[in-house]
Design goal:
Radius of gyration: 22 Å
Helix content: 25-40%
Strand content: 25-35%
Order of helices and strands: HEHEEEEHHEEEEEEHH
Shape: globular
Largest sheet: 9 strands, antiparallel
Number of domains: 2
Strand order of the largest sheet: 1-2-3-4-5-9-8-7-6
């Protein structure tokens, strides 16, 4: 094979690699932009009760929270239910809440978060303590997922909620992992007392733009940015009354 042929092959390979990169970036961008049209549909407690029961079989919901709302959503195209539980105080958007997402088809727990003011105790566990707790949690929740995860890093992670009208930082140690087989991410955030604050799985990421692709259903700030505000108790009651009237008619 002469030098010209070798140079021609190299040029073709470079062009092919460039095209693959462009197509991958375009796909990621289109998918990321599609999040702008994210929507949710409120459903009744009775219609979704079996999903709450399925969640509670594997995850214990902390005391002090009661059912607020449930909405049908999509997580990376997967049909799912977004549940929200709130306290009798510090409730509403950006307040204290316990939320989780569970898939409709196989009732897989896709994530949950406990935005509770008690995690304003910012005394963090060590990385080794965090690793042990996170690994144990993942093994109990889904052994097959746990076996495929590679830990990338363990660092402190902060979130912000409103407590009595004041911004309050809550924090935990984040155990972030990568799953090569699906090219996605999962993480566990552990609080000062060893309890799990947040768990998320099947998270897609655009590394080129350093931006998350998967919808952030557990995050109030993302909901607000996308005009997906959770209805208040009063709004939920009005919607229920409207549905009852329609049924009577």
């Amino acid at each position: 094979m002469n030098i010209q042929n070798i140079l021609g092959m190299k040029k073709a390979i470079i062009i092919l690699m460039a095209l693959i990169t462009i197509l991958t970036t375009m796909t990621m961008t289109v998918k990321a932009n599609s999040l702008k049209t994210a929507s949710m549909e409120e459903v009744s407690y009775d219609d979704a009760q079996s999903y709450l029961e399925a969640f509670q079989k594997v995850i214990k919901i902390p005391n002090g929270y009661s059912f607020h709302s449930v909405n049908k959503v999509k997580a990376d195209g997967v049909q799912a239910y977004l549940f929200r539980l709130e306290k009798s105080e510090n409730k509403g958007m950006n307040g204290e809440h316990y939320s989780f997402v569970i898939s409709e088809k196989d009732k897989q727990v896709l994530g949950f978060t406990n935005m509770d003011k008690r995690y304003s105790n910012t005394k963090m566990l060590s990385k080794s303590e965090t690793e042990k707790i996170a690994k144990d949690f993942l093994l109990k929740l889904d052994n097959s997922l746990a076996s495929e995860l590679k830990n990338l890093w363990i660092e402190r992670h902060d979130e912000e909620i409103s407590v009595n009208g004041k911004k309050t930082v809550i924090a935990g140690m984040k155990y972030k992992c990568y799953r090569a087989s699906q090219n996605d991410y999962a993480w566990v955030i552990v609080g000062f007392d060893g309890s799990v604050i947040t768990f998320e799985r099947n998270i897609k990421w655009n590394n080129g733009e350093h931006k998350r692709i998967t919808e952030k259903w557990l995050h109030d700030n993302w909901l607000a940015e996308n005009n997906l505000n959770i209805p208040t108790e009063e709004q939920t009651l009005k919607n229920l009354q409207k549905k009852l009237l329609q049924m009577e008619l």
